Amino acid sequence: MANCVFAFLWFPVNSFPLFVGLRYTRSRQRTKFISVISLISVVGIALGMTVLITVLSVFNGFQREVRTRMLSAVAHVQITGLGEALRDWQGIAATAAKNPHVLAAAPYVSAQGLLTNGGSVRGALLRGIDPAAEEKVSEIGKHMRSGTLESLRSGEYNAVLGAPLARALGVTIGDKVVLVAPQGQVTPAGIMPRMRQFTVTGTFEVGHYEIDAGLAVVHIGDAQRLYRMEDQVSGVRLKLDDLFLARQVARELLAVLPREVSVSDWSNFNATYFRAVELEKRMMSLLLFFIIAIAAFNMVASLYMMVREKQADIAILRTMGASPGEVMRIFMVQGTLIGVIGVGCGILFGILGALNVDSIIGFIEQVFRVKFMPQDVYQIADLPSELQAGDVVLTAVVAFVLSILATIYPSWRASKVNPAEALRYE
User: 96 and 261 in contact (C-beta within 8 Å)?
Assistant: First the structure.
């Protein structure tokens, strides 16, 4: 690694500037303050990289957790009609299934409604599903708190609710809830909303509060009858072999499906949330990069003071035939070495911090008797972390480039030392 660094600076391994620069690095400065500033620079670079890599890994972990929990109930790709219903959904599902990345397809009915139980009223998104097909495109069945999706049978008017929604309504398995559909029906007394009583046969909790607190699942046949859709559906949900190809697959399906349908991928369903998290990640990264920049400014101070201390040595080297460029590279060796050590320590401790963030946070919580992430609020028992090589490489490159830039001015000042002026008082 050292050879690569010095090759970047056009230093042959056996060059004169490299030899003298390393010699100056190992020697004891007469002014201890210079050594302290150099040590602070190394610690600052390493600390900044450690914090930055750890924080970026935590952001990545949160994004992964939210995405995983959301996709437990949200399809990778969703095909809907431009109106309220999707006609010929069987043909559309068959066309979509021909895409090599599509693993499964399932129809659904989606509509708004009010759920009531006694004096409790909650707005909910009603989703009609085919239980056998739903297991192939979502993981709600794996997150059941009680009951099963198989309890949803056509004509029995059963319902599976999100656990927070069930608690808000005060119902458990076997209790009755009344669904009020917004579409009205004409009666002698005027237009009245349609109502139907459902029996609660299960609850689920995927870990995403908005879904758990607002979703009620019924059989697709019951939903079609309640909303008078006959054999039509609201859309078709697709599961892919790679969720990160959802946008690409959506574009491919738009090219082969009829124009009266709309195709959206999972990133569109909560685009605002994901953009907000990404913006927070970028702003936090920018703020933490300032820690590394401050450490680089410390390098400027330490190298400049070292140049002032070594003026007599520089003058002697110049009188012995050293060129200004060689003098400049001598001091760039020292700044580069500080950067290499700081970056190396930052990578090491950053990776260790990202991989052991749970243990670190647990230790801090135990020592200071605080709780950073209450499980009843965040629905997450452990702090998620996902270390990505791209974050480590980007952080290391930026830190090393700042270290190199910090050496340029002090090294240039060293190359401009006048030997006669420097030796006048020696």
Answer: no
CA gap 308, 227 in Å, rounded: 84
Q: Write the DSSP symbol of residue 78.
A: E
| Cα–Cα distance, 59 to 52 (Å, whole number) | 11
**CA 356/CA 326 separation, integer angstroms:** 45
Could you give the residue ranges of the DSSP H alpha helices within 213-270? 220-226, 246-256, 266-269
Residue type, 118: G
Listed in sequence order, the residues at least 6 apart from 8 whose beta carbon sits closer than 8 Å to its beta carbon are: none
Q: Which run of H or of E encompasses 123?
A: strand 120-129
In degrees and rounded to multiples of 5, residue 377 shows phi and psi of: -100, -50
**Measured distance between the N- and C-terminal CA atoms of the chain, rounded to whole angstroms:** 40
Residues 215, 124: Cα–Cα separation, whole Å: 6
Of 70, 374, 376, 382, nearest to 206 (Cα)? 70
Report which residue type is found at 361.
I
Q: 112 φ, ψ to 5°?
A: -90, 155
Q: Please give the distance of CA 60 from its chain centroid, rounded to a whole number.
A: 3
Residue 77 has a CB neighbour count (10 Å cut-off) of 27
Question: Do the Cβ atoms of 220 and 107 come closer than 8 Å?
Answer: yes
Give the tens place of pLDDT for each residue, 16-35: 666 666 666 655 555 555 56
What are the tens digits of pLDDT across the range 194-240?
888 999 999 998 877 788 888 999 999 999 888 888 888 989 999 99
Q: Crossing angle for the helix pair 311-319 and 271-309, nearest 10 degrees?
A: 70
Nearest to residue 112, comparing CAs of 216, 27, 208, 211? 216
Torsional sign, CA 345, 349, 352, 354: negative
Mean pLDDT calculated for residue range 29-52: 75
CA-to-CA dists, residue 288 to 323, 346, 396, 401, angstroms? 39, 13, 13, 16
Q: Which two tokens stand for residue 270?
A: 């909560």
Beta bridge partners of 123: 114
Span 54-70, pLDDT tens digits: 888 888 888 887 777 77
Nearest CA to 391 out of 288, 297, 299, 246 is that of 288
Q: Which residue has the tokens 């135990």?
A: 366
CA 316 to chain CA centroid, nearest Å: 56
> What is the reported pLDDT for 1?
40
Give the model's pLDDT for residue 379: 53
Which residue, chain included where needed, has tokens 């060796």? Answer: 333
